[in-house]
């Protein structure tokens, strides 16, 4: 296969972890006989500095032409003024909107070797395997905003179509997994959540009667996610609730550095990125955990390129590296701490055992 991959390193540790993920993708290409062409473009703070805007037209155009997009992280102290008219995060929101990526998939599967890094008791984490589906292009983040000297407002709005398309994605995922979907809302207070619940219930009744569906209020879900995480399969929710709940869910895995994500729409092009931020306090030190970025690359292979064996290979290699205690600083309570590049190399070495060599398959 020949694929064009747009790489948006971004800010902070973004360039370091995306470089690690690209190195793993290059190994996949060599071992499976593919050709991946990587082209870097600016987004976030670095784009503001160079172009005066967080998502230059050239970057969005390149992403639209690519087969997939691999992204690092955006933001940092230099651009942290919340009152600034131009902010790095606007680039990320504009990219999702510009590519019409409405469903954000965030798998949460704690690795047995990393349970020590989680503040949650290990017996609660064994067997946890959750897929959170977060709506990406609607809700309060994209609503009309007003600001005066003594008041401010942010409009949260959703249409039936916006709800249907992301909920349908979640139902289909649940059908391929364990057949259980939880829809999270705040229907006891918010009108948008009442619409969300009505639409989801109708779809469950009319289109997905084979899927077990439950509705849970977001405040209750925040508690249940930590107290009973093993009970859940697929969770779907609106934009802001999903943003908050998935950061909370990172505590189940022990580190933000272990959780990948995929932002998808109707087409094949998706944006793949670790859920962590730019971590400016450790940027440039070579100690960032690259596993989330590498696992995001595996999701890229699976969802945009349809390379399922190759995606499985990366995921098994990461599992094996963690089993061998190839820990970066965020995971290592004691003992040797691997650098970003060393962790990526550990994955590459494990791929020797888990990936077929292209020549052997011919």
Structure commentary:
- With 362 residues, the chain is an alpha/beta fold.
- The chain folds into 2 domains: 1-99 and 266-362, Isopropylmalate Dehydrogenase (3-Layer(aba) Sandwich), CATH 3.40.718; 119-253, Isopropylmalate Dehydrogenase (3-Layer(aba) Sandwich), CATH 3.40.718.
- 43% of the residues lie in helices and 18% in strands.
- It contains 13 helices and 12 strands.
- It has helices at 14-32, 45-51, 57-65, 88-98, 122-125, 160-176, 191-206, 218-227, 239-253, 291-303, 308-323, 340-354, 358-361; strands at 2-10, 35-40, 68-73, 103-108, 130-135, 145-147, 152-154, 180-185, 212-217, 234-237, 260-264, 271-274.
- It has a 10-stranded mixed beta sheet with strand order 2-1-3-12-11-4-5-10-8-9, sandwiched between helices. Strands 6-7 form a two-stranded antiparallel ribbon.
- A hairpin with a 4-residue loop joins β6 (145-147) and β7.
- α1 crosses α10, α6 packs across α7 and α11 (308-323) packs across α12 (340-354).
- The model has no long low-confidence stretch (mean pLDDT 94).
């Amino acid at each position: 296969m020949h694929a064009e991959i747009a790489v948006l390193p971004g800010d902070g540790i973004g360039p370091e972890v995306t470089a690690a993920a690209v190195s793993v993708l290059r190994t996949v290409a060599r071992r499976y006989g593919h050709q991946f062409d990587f082209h870097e473009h600016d987004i976030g703070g670095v784009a503001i500095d160079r172009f005066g805007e967080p998502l230059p037209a050239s970057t969005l155009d390149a992403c639209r032409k690519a087969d997939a997009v691999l992204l690092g992280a955006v933001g940092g102290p230099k651009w942290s003024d919340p009152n600034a008219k131009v902010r790095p995060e606007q680039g990320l929101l504009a990219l999702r909107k510009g590519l019409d990526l409405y469903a954000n998939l965030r798998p949460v599967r704690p690795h047995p070797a990393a349970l020590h890094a989680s503040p949650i008791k290990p017996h609660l984490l064994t067997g946890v395997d959750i897929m959170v589906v977060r709506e990406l292009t609607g809700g309060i983040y994209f609503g009309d905003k007003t600001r005066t000297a003594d008041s401010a407002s942010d409009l949260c709005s959703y249409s039936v179509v916006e709800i249907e398309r992301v909920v349908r994605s979640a139902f289909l995922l649940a059908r391929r997994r364990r057949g259980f979907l939880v829809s999270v809302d705040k229907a006891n207070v918010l009108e948008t959540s009442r619409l969300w619940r009505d639409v989801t219930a109708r779809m469950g009744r009319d289109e997905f009667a084979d899927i077990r569906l439950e509705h849970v209020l977001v405040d209750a879900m925040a508690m249940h996610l930590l107290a009973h995480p093993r009970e859940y399969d697929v969770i779907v929710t609106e934009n802001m609730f999903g943003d908050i709940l998935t950061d909370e869910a990172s505590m189940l895995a022990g580190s933000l550095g272990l959780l990948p994500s995929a932002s998808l729409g109707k087409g094949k092009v998706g944006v793949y990125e670790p859920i962590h931020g730019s971590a400016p306090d450790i940027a440039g030190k070579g100690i960032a955990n690259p596993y989330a970025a590498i696992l995001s690359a595996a999701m890229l292979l699976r969802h945009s390129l349809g390379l399922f064996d190759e995606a499985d290979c990366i995921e098994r290699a990461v599992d094996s590296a963690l089993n061998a205690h190839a820990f970066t600083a965020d995971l290592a309570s004691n003992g040797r701490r691997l650098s970003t590049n060393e962790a990526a190399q550990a994955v590459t070495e494990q791929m020797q055992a888990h990936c077929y060599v292209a020549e052997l398959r011919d």
